[in-house]
Structures are given as C-alpha cells and as structure tokens.
Amino acid sequence: MVTRSGSARYEGLGKDGKGHVSTQSGVLSDTQYGFNTRFEDGAGTNPEELIAAAHASCFTMALSFALAQAGHSQGTLETTARVTLDKDGDGFTITRSALTLKGHVDGIDQAEFERIANEAKAGCPVSKVLNADITLETTFG
Q: What percent of the chain has pLDDT over 70?
C-alpha cells in the first residue's frame, strides 16, 4: 500500500483569508491559494487545478503502462485535464473532468490507441475517485 500526504494552512477567514498548501515530496511548499486563486485569476494554485494535474498525470501514466503492456515501446503522450467546479445549492461540486489526449505511438492504429486509452481512463485511480463526468477526447498521430 502506498500513502502520500499533503497539508494546508489557512490564515484569516473567508475571502480575505490566505491559504498555503504543501506536499509530502516538497514539490509544493507553502504554495499560496485562496479565494482569489480559486474564483479569480490571482497568483497561486487552487484545489481544482491540483486535481486536474493529478488526473492528467495519473491517466497519462496508466496509458503509458497499458501501451507498454500491449507491446509498444516508443511514443509521446500529452494530456490536459479541465476540472469543472459548479455551484450546487449553497456549495460547490466538481461535476466534470475532461481529459484531452494528444498521442503518437509507433506501430499502433487509431482504433487500438483509442481502445487502450479508454481502458486506461477506466482504470486510472484518480478517475475512479472523482465523482464526476469524465470524458476523453483523443488526437492521434
């Protein structure tokens, strides 16, 4: 079993508060977040951006391993995830994560590429944890 951790600290309350997020690895260390980074264009990060990065990286790694298992050895995969946060009553809900994949893999046709990509999407641990509509758009070649 693998367990990873992250932490957050929020100083002040509501819109005027300032948050700081860190990861176990130290890649993020007291990185700023808050209302202005989540709902406006302030400097720093936000939970949805971090979820999008996690989803894109998890899916891309899962696809890379699935393609290797299918006998492919050379290629490039680029994935962007766009996480949507919608108003839900008095709060908010992540309703969607849209994955956009661009790939080039030697010795594969588009149908096989799309089949393996969809299987990787279904098997990606981050896809499984998101209670959202997850779509995949692929560009091959």
A: 100
